[in-house]
Write a structure and sequence with these properties.
By secondary structure, this protein is α+β, with helices and mostly antiparallel strands. Helix content is 27%, strand content 21%. The radius of gyration is 33 Å and the shape is elongated. It starts with 11 loop residues before the first strand and ends with a helix. The relative contact order is 0.14.
Amino acid sequence: MNNLPGVYTLDIQQGNMISQEQIDQLRPQMSKRQVLYIMGSSMLVDVFHQKRWDYIYSEQLGGKERTQKRISLFFVNDKLTSVQGDLRPSTMPVKRESNESTVDIPERAFEKTLWEKLTGFFSSDEPKIVKIEEDLATQSTME
């Protein structure tokens, strides 16, 4: 059935995506929050084994054989103690290259908005408080 012409087969992916890069970032004594940040939440939650997180990922590309990766993380006192499964963390330190770049954006001179233009007709450059004080000073000298 896989070799019929004109028949499209879907790529099927299920579970948590697990990569070697993620596993390489795991270190002993990491907190559950740190592991959650790296791995994401596990799809399998066992109420009776709160100290064990299981991640399973399976994929079947184009109707070919299904491949599956499994990994279990074990915690003691909310700290990562061991990793079991198809992928193993490397002993070498992880060097992640950043693909981010910094861009300097020049400042732009913006035109006045319509509101600023309209209010500019009704107000002068001098503050209103100063004008009132000057008017009071001139009135007191005239009296």
